[in-house]
Every structure is written in structure tokens, then in C-alpha cells.
Specification:
The protein is of the alpha+beta class and 852 residues long. It is built from 26 helices and 30 strands. The structure holds (3S)-3,7-diaminoheptanoic acid (B3K) and zinc ion.
Length: 852
């Protein structure tokens, strides 16, 4: 067993006070010299060996207090026996050689398009030098970079530079995972920001020559983030410079290295011509997220990787608040819940389910999950509901005061809330330690009376078993409820009921008529709500609910019911649903973005989950067909209004990516998609030609692809953008995503045979292989050919880039939902991957857990 367990945690036996690093850069022979100023850790009694992590390092020299030392590294580090160490402070010096150009895993120091860059979280620093690579070892870093690149960057403040060298000093002690270095021929898009206390900060977004004009939105996003964190959390920036670098080859979205955030170029570069509205919003959110980490993650970091949600859950929560403030809370909440259900509920309901704070792992990179991130954020939202806005603010102030400069735990986090609010959170803490999505059943009772009737709401919770956790205790579940009277007026405004027992009843007295409840408003807890209500009541809530989230939710639930009946019983499209939704789409008093969201049908994967949950075996082809018929019916219902609606949503004037115009485009393009199902593609072809921004252009293209057209538009798109990696990723992706189920494998094979398909670039790989598994009906084609194709590619990628291969293997996590034939085919592919010689620890852990 190679697993690491939380229960084995011990503080490191030594402290590192100061680190001095010198890099002499060369693609195949970079020299890294390190001077570590260390001393025994007073928290650990006795004398201990010094164990340093290190992987793939060629040791050139080793000295202790200026004297050469003899020690031989093993596969994952270096041990210096206690007997060789003095009892007090000492200086350990190492020199190692590494080969950034040969680093295809994109972890540690690697090269991307001729530029040097790093990714150290979680355990990449050990691929750069020998070091205690764990987050509770915090040290001050001083870095000298030597190399022939014009720009040489590292963390902290610049201390001087000349031809071929630069020095950086980071005054804030930090764990090694926040170390970063970048070197290359880069251009800056610069600006400045003055903090609330008057500190002048130089801001730079560093890009490859030619990309300078794609930085304005990112720069605006930085400044908005800085201003917001000062205003809302009282947190100021703490260095003289804040640098962001755009890198093409990157395993994830971005990384919050102290003072030197490194971004996947896809998550920072944007112009109206190259990026869609959704991408603009995403970029703003990710920039905010990484910036907010400066306090929640960097100033206060995690004691160990089991505490990952301490920084990630909180930082996601903060970026969601930020985006809600800037772009509208109702729409933002709906989008976040859609994503939560699509990724986290899916994870929680399958073999990869794990607690928000796991207690063991094999490869920590496999735990950067929707559960740790998104459910981690949901838990904080619940805490805030339970302690109130004031309580939350006091708790956060206490958190920053008490733990600044520390590596903290979830227990520390909960204690802060207990101390600040006097509330006992022991039962609440189960949210962190127990996996699985609770289910809440709703029962209603009504007794009329002369002095007004009594309405009783009974809530029962169930906490289903998950891998390694067969039984679990009742959770504290905040259930926000409002009551409407039959006219649609709110008679009881939103109240938060606290469900803490397995079953609990809540009474509402003095009501004139039996109310219609609106339950789990704003999605106040990440649970599955089971409430047997009639189609008429759902339609009523869709028309009248005063809580925008629940209004959308009513339509969503209705769509799912209708779609489920169509798939399982061959039912026709429901009139209730059609007329209710059409009324909402026409309602000009509603935000266009909200109307566009309401028009979005449940995804095929979501429907498969819903059907499986209800005890059916989902048939992917039947879901695909029924969903198509549902769109056709909606198109027919709205047919006469579609052109007018599109016109009314026009956004004249210069392009703006703000929420208002983006919402109008979203509604217009949702209408275009329907129109395309009726007019043979005439409108979409015209829209494609007339488009002046990527949102409209791509929407028109996708509308055409969805109905089996768009060949010449694909060719035109390729012609226009073939030199642009980021835009071409979309071109690759949409073809795969919208291929007809029978044509999917051929489409992928045609695309991967192109010279511009490369495994070395994670964005390009994901554009194709991520879309392969996201094309639900095609991926789950009964032949099993798509399963085989994905497995082949994961095996190939694993040899180069285990992290991305492991992450993409989650395409198979839902395998137990499907029929015996499909299960057998997926199981066979998972076993084939598992038996591949030399498989990475990353992918081995994932397939092992999925096979169960
Ligand atoms: N902290 C990084 C993620 C690191 C992933 C390592 N496999 C980005 C973020 O969450 O902000
Ligand atoms: Zn993060």
C-alpha cells in the first residue's frame, strides 16, 4: 500500500528559515544550487534524521556548514542521518542538475514554446531541488536566475537585474508549492494599482510577443479583484509587484504562486474576436480566484494536503461571491449549481466519492476534485447561512488575525467560527469528513382552522453509503424555505430551517389558505431534494416563485420529468412544460441571461444520472433522441417569435463582455439554435457570416453542427484561425462534441491524424478527448468503440503526462449506471489500462478506485 494517511501526520523535524536558490538555466542541463538555513524544530523532541524530497535530480554537490557531505539519494529523496547534523542551526547546500526540456509531465521546471516555467503544487518542487516538499514547512525565498532570456521572473519583489540575471526576494514565508520561476522572451501589458493604504503595486501580464493586445480584460479583472478583496474582506495586496504569466502548455487552469501567478493562456488571454462571453466570465473568475489565494492559501496555507479544501473551498466560495457581485447573483448561482451537479454530484454518486477532507490518498494530484473545490465552497455557503452575515465576517476576521503566516487545518477553521459565534460545530463538521450527497425527503401536512391554518413541513434526511463509509450521521442541513399563496404572493418570506435530526417537522401557523412551498431556495445546501409534487405545482412555481433560483429549478425539474417520461414511457412532449417555458422566455421583465438559462435543456449525462437515480437503466441513444424531440417541440412552440426575439436582443455599439450584453447574446443565440431546427440553417448561416465576435460566430457554427450541417463554416473557421492555438481548440472541440453518435469515432480519428493535434499540449488533447467523453450518446455508443479509443489515448498520454491522463479518466466514473453490455465493455477498458506496464501512480490510483 503506497497510500498516505492523515492520521500519520507529524510536524517536520526541522525548520527552514531561509532558502537561497540560484538557477543557471539551460534546456537540458539546468543547474539549481540551494542554500537552506535550517534548525531543529522545537515542536519535535530529540534528534532526527533530515529527510529531503527529491525526484529525478542529479546530485552534483552536497555540503553541510561549508563541508562536503557524503550521502546517496534514493528514488524519492535524500536522508542525512541525525548523527551527521549539529544540534543547532545549520546550512545545507546542494547543487543538482535537471532537464526542463525533457519534462513532459509539466510538473516541476519545464519548457513551453521555448519558455521556462514551473508548476510546483502539489509536489513538483521536489523535481527542482532537494527540499522538504510539504506545505507546513514555510520559509523565506531569495532567488537568483541566470539565463539568456530577456525576462527572468520569480516570486516576491525584484531586487535587481542585469543582462542574463535577475534577483527576487519574497519577504513572506511560504511553502515550496508556491515557488515559481519563468524565463523567456516575454512582453508585458502593464498597469498599476494603489491599495487602500496607499501602496503602489506594479501589475503585469506577461505574454509571448504578439499577444499583448489580448490582456486588457485580464488586467481589468485583476484590478476588480484587488478592489473587491479590500472592500469585502478587508484584504490588501502585500508586495510591490503582481505578475501574471500566460503559458500555453499547462495542466490546469492557473496557479497562485506568490506574486507570480502562472496561467494557462486559455484562462487569461481574451479579445472579442477570439473568446466567447462564457470564457470572458470564466477568465474574470479564475483571475479573481488566483488573486484571492494570496490571502486564502498563501498567507494562510494548508498544514498538509488533506486540508486542501481549507484554501480551495474558501477561495472558490470567494470567487463565486465576487462573480455574483459583478455579474448578478441569480444567474451566477444557477450556473454554479449546474456545475456542482454535473461534476460533484456525479463524483459523489460513483466509485470516486470522497470526503471534502479526505483521510488518505495515493497521489494528491488526484484530489483536486469537484468535491474538494465546489462542495468545499458549498460548505462555506452553508456556514454563512447558519451563522449569518455578521457572524461570518467576525469569523473571517478572526481567521486572518489568528492564522496569518500559518499552515492551518479544517479544525482550526471550524474553531474560528465557534469562537467568533459561540456556535457548536461538531455535528456540522460531518460535512467535511463524510462523503456522499444527502437526500432530503419532503412531506407536507395542512390543517385548516378558524384562526388560520397550520402548515407542517416534515423533512427527512438520508445519507447514502459511499466507498469506505457505509454509515454516517445526520448532517446539519440549512433548508431555506418560502411559502406562496395560490395567487403566487409570498406569504412567508425566506426562512432558514435547520434540519439536524434524521426527521424533523416545522410548523407555520396562521395561514389563510394551504400554501405552496418553495423549498431549498438559492440551493441552500448541496443535497438532492425529493418532493413529490404535481406537474401543475411545478408549473405554478415556474410562473410565480419569488426566489429566482427556485423558479429556474422548477423549470429544470419539470424538464427532467418530461424528458424522463419521454425516454422511459415514450410519452409525448408535455404541454404544461412547453407553455410554461415559452411564457418565461417571452417575459420581458426577466433578465435575458436568466431566460437563456431556463431554455437550456438538461444535459444527456444529467438525464442519464436522473434516470439511474430513479432505478432505470439509462439508454444513451434514447435520451439523445428524446432530447432532440424536446428541442424540436420548443422550437415549434416559439417559432413565430424567434426572429423578433433575436432582433430585440441585438447589442449594438462596441463589444462589451459585461453581464448585460452577454446575457442578451445568450438569449439571442439560444433562439438561433431553435430556429436552426426549423429553417434548414438559413438563419444560422447568415449569423455566422455576420458575426463580429466569437460568441456569435461559435454559436452559429454549433447550431449548424447540431443539425448535421456546417461543413463550409468549419472550413471557413479553420481558414481564419489556423494559426491560433486557442481558437483552434474550439474548432477541434465542437466537431467532436456535436458529432452524430455513429460518426464520433471517425471524427476523432480524422482530427487526431492532423499534424496540429498534439499530446504535448493539454488544451489540444482535452479539446478532443474531453469532447469525446462529453458527447454522451457517442461516447456510450453500444459498440464500445469510443471507450476503446479513449482508453488507447489515455494509455498513450499517461507515458508523458500522468496528471492530465488521470484527470481525464473520470470519463469512466459513471460506468455502473449503464446496462450490462456497456458495463462489461468499460470494465474491460479499465482493466486494460490497469494492466499497462509502467502505468503512472496517478492513473493507476484512478482506475483502481473506479474498478473498486
Ligand atoms: N492551486 C491550483 C491547482 C493546483 C493543482 C495541482 N495538481 C490552482 C487553483 O486551485 O487555484
Ligand atoms: Zn484554487
Amino acid at each position: 500500500d503506497t497510500a498516505v494517511y492523515l492520521r500519520d501526520y507529524q510536524p517536520f523535524a526541522h525548520c527552514v528559515d531561509q532558502v537561497e536558490l540560484t538557477f543557471r538555466l539551460a534546456p537540458n542541463s539546468t543547474r539549481v544550487s540551494a542554500r537552506l538555513h535550517m534548525r531543529p524544530n522545537p515542536a519535535r523532541e530529540g534528534r532526527h534524521d533530515l529527510r529531503l524530497d527529491g525526484e529525478g535530480l542529479r546530485l552534483i554537490a552536497l555540503m553541510l556548514d561549508g563541508r562536503p557531505l557524503d550521502a546517496t539519494p534514493d528514488d524519492n529523496g535524500l536522508t542525512i542521518p541525525a548523527a551527521d547534523l549539529p544540534g543547532g542551526p545549520f546550512v545545507l547546500e546542494t547543487e543538482v542538475e535537471i532537464a526542463p526540456e525533457a519534462n513532459t509531465a509539466l510538473e516541476g521546471l519545464y519548457m513551453s514554446n521555448g519558455m521556462y516555467c514551473t508548476q510546483c503544487e502539489a509536489e513538483g518542487f521536489r523535481k527542482i531541488t532537494f527540499y522538504p516538499d510539504r506545505p507546513d514547512v514555510m520559509a523565506r525565498f531569495r532567488v537568483r536566475v541566470e539565463g539568456d532570456a530577456p525576462v527572468l521572473l520569480s516570486n516576491g519583489n525584484p531586487m535587481g537585474a542585469g543582462p542574463g540575471w535577475a534577483e527576487w526576494d519574497d519577504p513572506w514565508p511560504k511553502p515550496a508549492y508556491l515557488f515559481a520561476l519563468v524565463a523567456g522572451d516575454l512582453r508585458a501589458h502593464g498597469d498599476t494599482y494603489t491599495t487602500a493604504s496607499g501602496r503602489q503595486v506594479a501589475l503585469n501580464i506577461w505574454v509571448r510577443p504578439g499577444d499583448e493586445h489580448r490582456c486588457q480584460w485580464g488586467m481589468d479583472s485583476i484590478k476588480r479583484s484587488m478592489e473587491w478583496d479590500e472592500r469585502v474582506y478587508g484584504r490588501e495586496y502585500d508586495l510591490d509587484v503582481f505578475n501574471i504569466v500566460a503559458v500555453d502548455d499547462f495542466n490546469m487552469g492557473a496557479m497562485e504562486n506568490k506574486g507570480l501567478n502562472i496561467f494557462n493562456s486559455k484562462c487569461v488571454l481574451a479579445t472579442p474576436e477570439t473568446m466567447t462571453d462564457d470564457e470572458f466570465a470564466r477568465i474574470e473568475g479564475i483571475i479573481a480566484h488566483e488573486y484571492f489565494h494570496n490571502w486564502t492559501g498563501n498567507r494562510i496555507t494548508c498544514r498538509d494536503w488533506f486540508q486542501l479544501c481549507l484554501k480551495e473551498g474558501l477561495t472558490v466560495y470567494r470567487d463565486q461571491q465576487f462573480s455574483g457581485d459583478l455579474r448578478g447573483h441569480a444567474v451566477k448561482r444557477i450556473e454554479d449549481v449546474l456545475a456542482l451537479r454535473a461534476r460533484q454530484f456525479r463524483e459523489d454518486q460513483g466509485p470516486l466519492a470522497h470526503p471534502v477532507r479526505p483521510d488518505s490518498f495515493v497521489e494528491i494530484n488526484n484530489f483536486y476534485t469537484a468535491t474538494v473545490y465546489e462542495k468545499g465552497a458549498e460548505i462555506i455557503g452553508m456556514l454563512k447561512l447558519l451563522v449569518g452575515d455578521d457572524g461570518y465576517q467576525r469569523a473571517l476576521d478572526l481567521y486572518f488575525n489568528r492564522h496569518d503566516g500559518q499552515a492551518a487545518t479544517i479544525e482550526d477553521w471550524l474553531k474560528v467560527f465557534e469562537d467568533a459565534t459561540g456556535r457548536d460545530l461538531s455535528q456540522f463538521s460531518r460535512w467535511y469528513f463524510e462523503a456522499g450527497t444527502p437526500r432530503v425527503k419532503v412531506y407536507e401536512a395542512w390543517s385548516p382552522g378558524a384562526e388560520g391554518g397550520v402548515y407542517t413541513l416534515t423533512l427527512a434526511q438520508e445519507n447514502p453509503p459511499t466507498p469506505d463509509q457505509p454509515t454516517k450521521g445526520a448532517k446539519v442541513i440549512p433548508v431555506a424555505v418560502g411559502l406562496l399563496n395560490p395567487n403566487g404572493d409570498e406569504v412567508v418570506p425566506t426562512t432558514v430551517l435547520e434540519l439536524t435530526k434524521p426527521v424533523e417537522s416545522f410548523r407555520f401557523e396562521g395561514l389563510a389558505t394551504r400554501p405552496v412551498p418553495s423549498i431549498l431556495r438559492g440551493f441552500s445546501a448541496p443535497v438532492v431534494l425529493e418532493h413529490d409534487i404535481s406537474t401543475e405545482t411545478r408549473a405554478f412555481l415556474l410562473a410565480h416563485d419569488t426566489d429566482p433560483f427556485n423558479r429556474w429549478e422548477a423549470g429544470r425539474a419539470l424538464s427532467k420529468e418530461v424528458l424522463a417520461a419521454m425516454v422511459a414511457q415514450g410519452a409525448p412532449v408535455s404541454r404544461h412544460w412547453l407553455s410554461g417555458l415559452a411564457r418565461l422566455v417571452r417575459d420581458e421583465s426577466l433578465d435575458p441571461a436568466f431566460r437563456a438559462l431556463a431554455m437550456r435543456l438538461p444535459s444527456e449525462d444529467d438525464m442519464a444520472a436522473t434516470l439511474a437515480d430513479a432505478g432505470h437503466v439509462p439508454d444513451p441513444a434514447a435520451i439523445h433522441d428524446a432530447r432532440g424531440r424536446m428541442s424540436d417541440a420548443l422550437a415549434a412552440e416559439l417559432a413565430p417569435e424567434l426572429p423578433g426575439l433575436r432582433e430585440a436582443m441585438a447589442t449594438p455599439g462596441p463589444f462589451s463582455a459585461e453581464a448585460g450584453p452577454a446575457g442578451r447574446r445568450a438569449l439571442a443565440n439560444a433562439c438561433l439554435a431553435l430556429q436552426t431546427r426549423l429553417d434548414g440553417g438559413t438563419a444560422a448561416r447568415a449569423a455566422f457570416d455576420a458575426a463580429t465576435n466569437m460568441t456569435d460566430r461559435l454559436s452559429a457554427l454549433v447550431s449548424l453542427l447540431t443539425v448535421g450541417q456546417g461543413r463550409s463554416q468549419l472550413a471557413a473557421f479553420e481558414h481564419d484561425w489556423q494559426g491560433d492555438r486557442l481558437v483552434m481548440d474550439k474548432w477541434f472541440s465542437v466537431q467532436v462534441l456535436h458529432a452524430l453518435p455513429d460518426a464520433l469515432v471517425d471524427t476523432v480519428n480524422r482530427l487526431t491524424a492532423r499534424p496540429d493535434f498534439t499530446m504535448g499540449n493539454p488544451n489540444r488533447f482535452r479539446a478532443v478527448m474531453g469532447a469525446l467523453s462529453a458527447n454522451h450518446a457517442g461516447f456510450h455508443h453500444a459498440s464500445g468503440a469510443a471507450y476503446r479509443l479513449l482508453a488507447d489515448w489515455l494509455i498513450r498520454l499517461d507515458a508523458k503526462n500522468p496528471q492530465t491522463a488521470a484527470r481525464m479518466s473520470t470519463a469512466f466514473e459513471t460506468w455502473r449506471r449503464y446496462d450490462a453490455g456497456r458495463q462489461e465493455r468499460i470494465r474491460a477498458e479499465l482493466s486494460r489500462i490497469a494492466q499497462t506496464p509502467g502505468l503512472s501512480r496517478d492513473l493507476a490510483e484512478m482506475v483502481g478506485r473506479m474498478l473498486g
